[in-house]
Amino acid sequence: MDTNRTKATEISVNGRKYRICxxxxxxxxLRYAKYVNDKIGExxxxxxxxxxGDFMTLTAINIAEDLFRIKQDRDEALDVILAxxxxxxxxxxxxxxxxxxxxxxxLEDTGDDLAVFDAxxxxxxxxxxxxxxxxxxxxxxxxxxxxxxxxxxxMHLQMQLFIPEEETDE
Length: 170
Prior knowledge:
Elements: H1 3-6, E1 9-13, E2 16-20, H2 26-45, H3 52-97, H4 99-109, H5 114-161
Antiparallel strand pairs: 1-2
Helix pairs in contact: 2-3, 2-5, 3-5, 4-5
């Protein structure tokens, strides 16, 4: 049994107290509440909005905008990673097939000396190392974006589940 679900966490959102029970840890729930309060603060700084329901709807829309922007950033980063992976695979295939080596030997055959070969080989190795490092960085970035999306999704679910009854339109 998940013990997190049975433990209530007290939070304050927009000056109102709530007791939240859910799958998220109390630390995460407090972080979500802070995020929502920060968004509320941003809206308040822009001026009056209307009734509390309108205000919370605008806050939810702002949070949804953040979520979709992060998803778009993640998708764009994934596209870059896939392109870099293809580039690295192409490079690995050409190196494995000897295409790069054959090209370098052609340089030597045209009268270029061993120094040109060594310099080109180092350039190719440096490029491969750079691509590997960039790939590691982009994979870490995607993982960070996924974690942020999970947090925003959890926060969104918490907001949907715990709107005070007097705030509903029923």
